[in-house]
Write a structure and sequence with these properties.
heterodimer, A: mainly alpha, two-stranded antiparallel ribbon, 12 helices, B: mainly alpha, Ferritin, two-stranded parallel ribbon, Ferritin-like_SF (chain A), Ferritin-like domain-containing protein (chain A)
């Protein structure tokens, strides 16, 4: 991990990063404690402290922005811990392209955790750990599991992964409006949002068996984009909420929505002669935090998320 | 139009232009009907394509999105109409889905913008120029698709912060993640494992400013795109 590249990457996102850091020298001063060659493992911590210095500047973020970021952070913990466990489970993921992709996704989610913690600084929640989650959906054995074989059946693992990514895409979209007051944070959130969409697209491709397999748009053979509500998605009834309407439905319509900005697309664009599926695929829909929380609670041991 | 000498045609072509808009740098290109085929796409002279609006950053951003969607739609439309002979099974279905989505995006933005669309008063729409691309091979088509989709994602990621209304921000975000889904696929069909090419060392996707994006799409637009009114950050 090249620190200079890291800083230059931040610079691409935020040209004013150096102003925020006062000077380049400040960054390097920051590095003297750990030596100029920083181990990859130390990067998230470094990243977080640089970010909090740059953007936190010792002043608290407005509570509504902090709440949205902490909510996103919890979802990132859910994803990061899920992939960490999956990649570490012997015999679950076949060696080769699948393992490479899932390792990359795991790393992305860990970086998202670091980025969000950095933006939040001292306002970040305490880190969530493995014991907080139950990825089988049995809520710590208190009910029948939704995905009993999530860590023994590769296809189930991919299906749950897709569910998390599709939820993440909708959650970030739902949270974006609340971040509008802070340009740097909104842009960072949207940059994470599109990464989640790339993850979702790729997991869907993996589930259907690669790019040469046409997706049916439902069940175990999804397209890379969301067709209607996909019959409830990867887990049928268990994942239906991920593709359904939020609350209020007028602001958070289901994924099969074909009315945008008050324009009924099939009517207004009838001349295109496209199927309803195309109109629904062309737009991803946002989801509200309450609905996302209820989806996430299926994978939490306790009763609060 | 009987005189076919170069000079005479140049002068004639010039007379087809009408400068619209309220002075400043704003000069939309309007073409009166031409009698001859060869005059349908004259080379503009000192004309610029103004996609921004001086008094509205929101309409500027939406028109910027509209131009990007027009570009993508025109590209996929051309590819689906004349697909490369070496497409693999299933790839035409992908390209058709992508064409459908981008056409829907384009037409939706056109309806949403109405008279605020930068090209609302154009008599003739200019044609995008894809001559720099290789569209006769699947390699060329998917390479171009990757490029255009990645530009779209980075453009939306970079410009969204300038929108001042929640509704328009949501609209852009609804498009952005679909473009990202497209981009991941467009990478993967050509090169297994390349789907994450744009994701940086920080785990964040690329974001580009409108000026960076304009430079990237200018090769496909036969008229110089004016950067007037576009956000510079």
């Amino acid at each position: 991990m090249d620190i200079f590249k890291l800083i230059s990457d931040i610079e691409k996102v935020d040209p004013e990063v150096y102003d925020r850091l006062d000077s380049r020298r400040r960054v390097f001063k920051h590095l003297t404690g750990v030596g100029t060659k920083v181990a990859a493992a130390a990067v998230p911590a470094f990243f977080a402290s640089v970010f909090s210095k740059a953007y936190g500047q010792g002043t608290a973020l407005p509570s509504d922005i902090a709440a949205i970021l902490n909510f996103a952070l919890k979802l990132e913990y859910l994803e990061a811990l899920f992939y960490t466990k999956g990649v570490a489970t012997a015999g679950l993921i076949p060696a080769g392209a699948g393992l490479t992709a899932l390792t990359n996704i795991r790393d992305d989610e860990n970086k998202h955790v670091a980025a969000l913690r950095g933006l939040l600084g001292s306002q970040a929640i305490a880190p969530l750990t493995d014991s907080f989650f139950d990825f089988t959906g049995s809520k710590g054995g208190t009910r029948a599991p939704l995905f009993a074989d999530v860590f023994s059946n590769y296809q189930t693992f991919l299906a749950v992964a897709q569910s998390f990514e599709d939820t993440g895409v909708r959650a970030y979209k739902g949270g974006a409006a609340g971040l509008k007051a802070n340009d740097a944070i909104l842009e960072a959130a949207l940059n994470i949002h599109s990464v989640e969409a790339r993850h979702a697209s790729h997991l869907r491709l993996m589930r259907r068996g690669g790019p040469t397999v046409a997706g049916a748009g439902t069940g175990a053979s999804p397209k890379s984009w969301i067709t209607g509500t996909e019959g409830g998605g990867a887990g049928g009834a268990a994942t239906a909420a991920i593709y359904g309407a939020g609350n209020p439905a007028s602001n958070f319509p289901a994924e099969d929505n074909v009315t945008q900005g008050g324009i009924q697309l099939q009517t207004a664009l009838a001349s295109l002669n496209f199927p309803a599926s195309a109109f629904s695929e062309a737009f991803d829909e946002p989801l509200d935090a309450t609905t996302v929380t209820n989806i996430a609670l299926n994978f939490v041991v306790g009763n609060s998320f | 139009m009987h005189d076919n000498s170069f000079l005479a045609r140049t002068i004639h072509r010039r007379s087809f232009f009408r400068v619209a808009g309220a002075g400043a740098a704003a000069s939309a290109l309007m073409l009166a009907g031409c009698a001859k085929e060869e005059d349908n796409n004259p080379t503009p002279i000192n004309q610029q394509l103004v996609i921004g609006k001086a008094d509205s950053v929101n309409f500027t951003v939406l028109n910027y999105a509209y131009l990007l969607e027009q570009l993508e739609a025109a590209f996929y439309d051309k590819v689906v109409t004349t697909p490369p002979a070496d497409l693999l099974p299933g790839e035409l279905a992908y390209l058709t889905d992508l064409r459908d989505h981008e056409l829907i995006h384009r037409e939706y933005l056109k309806v949403a913008l109405g008279s605020n669309a930068y090209d609302a008063s154009f008599v003739t729409q200019f044609a995008f120029d894809f001559s720099s691309l290789t569209l006769t091979t699947r390699q060329g088509v998917w390479t171009a698709a990757q490029r255009l989709e990645d530009i779209g994602v980075a453009a939306y990621n970079g410009v969204a912060k300038h929108i001042t209304t929640t509704g328009y921000l949501k609209m852009l975000a609804k498009l952005a993640s679909v473009e990202a889904r497209h981009a991941a696929l467009a990478h993967e069909v050509l090169q297994a494992g390349s789907w994450a090419a744009t994701i940086g060392t920080t785990g964040l996707d690329a974001a580009k400013t409108p000026l960076e994006v304009v430079a990237l799409i200018q090769p496909f637009v036969p008229i110089e795109i004016s950067t007037a009114y576009l956000p510079t950050t």
